[in-house]
Amino acid sequence: MAYRFLKKCVKIAEKISFMAEVISAVSIGLLLLLVVGDAIAASVFRKPLTWSSDFQSLFLAYALLMPAAYVLHQDSHIRVRVLADRLPPAVQRTVEILTMVASLVAFIALTVKAWQSAVSSYTRGWVSHTPFGMPLWWSQLAVVVASGLLCLQLLAWLCRFFFPKQSKGSNPSSVSDVVMISSGGQEGSS
Known about the structure:
Layout: H1 2-43, H2 52-65, H3 68-73, H4 89-124, H5 136-162, H6 175-182
């Protein structure tokens, strides 16, 4: 029963992470259109889009931050394992678990602080110092959502690690092994 519940929670976290990846892709497309549109407006019509820098910052924040949870799920983060690869496998697993737990604690703290900052910006009515005057909480919300999703994905990783549906002799030793177990042996599938 508990295993089924955890499995559903992991699947939900993975679907939400994928949706965040889609939001990032859309943000990149909108950012591209806005930059090109602003360049055309400034050079051809001699009327730059005064509001474009606000939206460029907004789209850039979502484009850069939102994919973090999905990248963790895909085991695509860049790693430097010079020291870790020299450790015995059991110590490597322990270090990886401790790293994931420390990351979870750090991102929970970031999520809480970013939420407080966004709420403060919203309640005080803070806006950017540009002609458009975009509310600052719009960009700050990207940090809240992205770090919150990363927390969910870190929890999902820990659940998959500690509660894998193991076949005989399987023992996950890294994120990629955990991904393999959660996706039924097909890496990269959700």
